[in-house]
Every structure is written in structure tokens, then in C-alpha cells.
Amino acid sequence: MRVAVVGAGASGLVCSIRLSSDDYEVVLFDKNSICGKKILVTGNGRCNYWNGDQSICHYHSSTNDRLLSIITSSVQDEVLSFFSSLGVVPNIKNGWYYPYSNQASSIQKLLEEEAKRRGVVLALDNEVVDVKKENNHFFVYTKEGYEVFDYLVIATGSFAGIRNLDGVSGYSLAEKFGHHIVPVRPALVPLITKGSFLKDWSGVRTSCVVSLYEDCQFIKKEEGEIQLTDYGVSGICVFNLSRYVGVGIPEKEEKLVINFLPFLEDKSDSEVYEWFMKRGEELSNYSILSYLEGILPYKLIIVLLKVSHISRNSTWSSLSEEERNRLISCIVSFPLEVVGTKDIISSQVCSGGVSLNEVTDSLESKLVDHLYFTGEVLDVDGDCGGYNLGFSFMSGIIVSDDIRG
Ligand SMILES: Cc1cc2nc3c(=O)[nH]c(=O)nc-3n(C[C@H](O)[C@H](O)[C@H](O)COP(=O)(O)OP(=O)(O)OC[C@H]3O[C@@H](n4cnc5c(N)ncnc54)[C@H](O)[C@@H]3O)c2cc1C
To answer: Quick check: helix, strand or coil at residue 121?
Structure first.
């Protein structure tokens, strides 16, 4: 049997390695001249390839109900044994898996070497420009000509993080077979917001709880480090909310509400007020700047005072009750109007892709026999923390197992 795998990224490599054998000749096409190019930039060059917390809530799709039957505990176990069989020892930080070498290139090289060792035919620098199926065979066209296969796996990833979007995408290859593409949007991406103060707080990194609202309706909240920038906000907690931004049609009004003191998040309004009052009694001689300095970064304090119209020369005790409430509200419920996401180049993944409604639990097309999809080309995206590579590896395993039968 001949299998064409289009895309030598995370999912295509794992799928090819697991399939290649005396029974299956696997040709792995990629338009790049190296395998797994994107793997090299993951996890800031360290490759966060897995997460120990595999709760399904960390994965997202427009057909969420399908995820449980695809992402099973047995395929999760298979990913870990696969990497262990490659000799990868994980360095685990809060459940986030990195290779012990702390180098993404280790994972990329190990996958490439294993593919070669297993006899996968690497057709690099070879963009697949067209595909069709005739008489039970797939015809895979590159600029060099075409080859004929029994199975076709589309493992072309998404547009995320890619500068040059010229060429033929996996989405358009899928559409040739009649598949529908759930709109593709940047996810895990910084957010652009309104605010005349953005330049003033640019460069601040601080802990917070950030909540996303759409037309005043609560969508989701995340806790973690936020990066305040001159265009808006970034950081892992913002990334995890970004997939929900810009989804509403017609456009909905989206707003972030930031609590810059996460330890007060679960307290009632009166408890929060009490906490500030007690601090005011303890620091009664302090200027309002010094009052805030032990709990918030300086640049942020300046913005909070400006937005709440409070003079930096005042003291807590000199503030009226209304001024105190205004300041507290700015600190624990800072509102930020969202304009949109940064563009797809700045994103780590895309939401959307080939609809899960049109594939089986084994990721085979319901429209065309022997056509499969793996990785990010599918309408599945994960939170930050190794879930996207994790899904890519799982899907590569699922498809290789199904083809082998
Ligand atoms: C900056 C950045 C950091 C990230 N960090 C992490 C992280 O730490 N942890 C994590 O879990 N995820 C991370 N991700 C996401 C992760 O890299 C992807 O989800 C994952 O690589 C997707 O795997 P894939 O196999 O679906 O696609 P890819 O790995 O993108 O591979 C697809 C391949 O298909 C090839 N291709 C596309 N079209 C064609 C064609 N027509 N013909 C031939 N070849 C084609 C491409 O050249 C590419 O090599 C990060 C992403 C970015 C951009």
C-alpha cells in the first residue's frame, strides 16, 4: 500500500513514522526543505510538547461534543510511550512537558531521524499543488508531476505564525474533496484594545485574573501573567481567551475586565473594600503612590491613578469614599475594550479548519474513503501548555493506527 502524507510537521511526522513498514510505503511531502520547521519555534525554542493534565476542557472545536471520542486516554498513553521509545526524557514544569535537553531541535531531529530510519520517503521542497481521487486511487500533484497512492493524509497545519501564505493550503486541498472549512481565525494570539494609556503601561508584566465579556455576557476567565503593551495585552492568560474574540457575527462588543490583585478575586465587594481600608489604616502616612507600590508595578499605578482621576499627591485617608471606590474598581475590575486580535503571523495556532462533523473518530473523511486529516488543519485547537502539539501527535497516532487496521 502506498500512503501520501502531505505536511512533514508534528502530526505528519508521527503518522509517517508509525505507518512506514514492509506493508506501507509512506511518502512524506513538505514544501519546506526541512521536516518539522514549526516545531523548532515552539515553547520559545524549548518545545512544550505535552501536558500532564489532559482534561478535555483544554481542547476546543466548533463541535466540542466530538472531542471526547477522539482524544481518548489510550491515545494519550500512546503519545507518551512514543516519545519514550525515541529516548525523550521529559522535563515537567507544572504539568508542562519539555524535552530534558530544553531544546526544540532535539524533538525535531529525533522525529526526522526516526522517519529516515523507518524508511519514510522524504519528499522535501515539494509543495503539493493539487489532489484528486480516481478509480480508488489518489493522484498527488507537485510541480514535478504526480504520484499515485492508496491513502492520502492531509497534515498541512494552519496559517498560524507563517509569514508567507502563498501557495496551496491544506484547507483548499480538503475543499477539493467536498469538505467544509469552519472559518479559520488566529487563536493563542495577543489582543488589540482601546485606551489612551497603552503607551504608559507598555512593558509591564504582572499577575492578574482576566475575564472576557461579549455584549456584557461573561465568556471565560483566566488567571496568570499578563503583558501590558502599547497595542493592548498579551501573555498566556490572554492567549487562552483570544480564540473567543471576533467569533460573533454580527460583530459583538467585546470587553476584558482585569483584576490586578488575583488574591482578592473570590472576595465580595465589601471584603475587598475592607481589605483596602485596613491597608489604609496601616499605611496612613503614605502617599497614594507608596500605598499602591507594595502591590502593583509603578507604571501600572500611574495608569490606574490617571484613569481613576486621582492625584498622585493624595493619601488614602484624603480620598472621598467615591474616589476610593473608583480606585478600587480600577484595580480589581479594570475595563478594556477589545478591538480585535493581532494578525495570524503573531498567533501560535488557528481555530477552525476541517469540520469534525465530516470525519470519523479515526479522523477518516466521511465523504471520501481512505482520506484522512491530522493536526491543526482540523477544527481543533488547544490551550497554551502543550495541547496543540499534543493533539497533533495524538491525531498522527490515531490515523496511523486506523490505516494499519
Ligand atoms: C511560535 C509558535 C509557538 C508554538 N509553541 C507551541 C508549544 O510550545 N506547544 C504546543 O503544543 N504548540 C505550540 N505551537 C503550535 C504547534 O506548533 C502546532 O499546533 C503544530 O505544529 C501543528 O502541527 P501540524 O502537524 O498540524 O502542522 P505543522 O507542524 O504546521 O506542519 C504542517 C506542515 O505542512 C506543510 N505544508 C503545508 N501545506 C503544504 C503543501 N501544500 N504541500 C506540502 N507541504 C505543505 C508545512 O510546510 C508544514 O511543514 C506553537 C506555534 C507557534 C507558531
So the answer is: strand
